[in-house]
Amino acid sequence: MGINGTSAATWFTTEVSHSELLDVLHRATDAVVAALATHDHWGLSGVRDGQYFSDLAADEAASTVLIGAGLAVLSEESGVTGASEMVAVLDPLDGSTNASRGLPWYATSICVVADGAAVASVVHDHVSGVRWEAVAGGGARMDGVLLEARTEIPFDESLVVVNGLPPENPGWAQFRVYGAAALDLCAVADGRFDAFVDYDVDALGPWDYLGGMLICQEAGVSVSDAFGRPLVVLDHTARRTPVAGVGGGFQQLLDARVAAAAP
What we know:
CATH class of the largest domain: Alpha Beta
Shape: globular
CATH topology of the largest domain: Fructose-1,6-Bisphosphatase, Chain A, domain 1
Order of helices and strands: HHHEEEHEEEEEEEHEHEEH
Radius of gyration: 17 Å
Largest sheet: 8 strands, mixed
């Protein structure tokens, strides 16, 4: 059911509804900001491989708000909590290894999925304080300012942000590897990067990319799984290989990623 007791499909039909949902996502994100402001233990938790105490602190802060608002939560850190037609897919701290080492590229990402579609998302850069938001069909915003639709850059002039290690240069001008897919995708949406590609093998869960995916799509950026699988999934074990870009450059990058996986 929706936040006000209506069905998910009905709840997302008005501007007010979108505003209410975004308000919940912003409050959850603000709770993470507050929790990390007083957090002083950035080491590994020892609960599972690659998990930090900061992940757990961020997860508790965001999940408390989201569940309290009537959303179910699919979190990287705590799995599935609650039962609702609307599911907040949560990466409490994307780039937590960066955060643990003082590298300035880590974020909180939340994307609400209803009726099999991404309907609203918020991504917050914890270093710069910049925040992106999007609602399906309503555009994407950075710090409240509507993002203009991305225009195509020739592939051989593109600066591409990459997850994993590319086996070779498929024709782009330059690439960077920063280690937080949510921020990587938002940087494509706002024009700092021209495209994104994942060269790891089934490494990214839906919490890694869904928030940034919707922001990209609402800014005119195409986003697909390299192998044709649906990106909107609510399975904690699911992994995907997202590629994002604009126009012919997107297709060149998608083709190159597929070719890199060929035996």
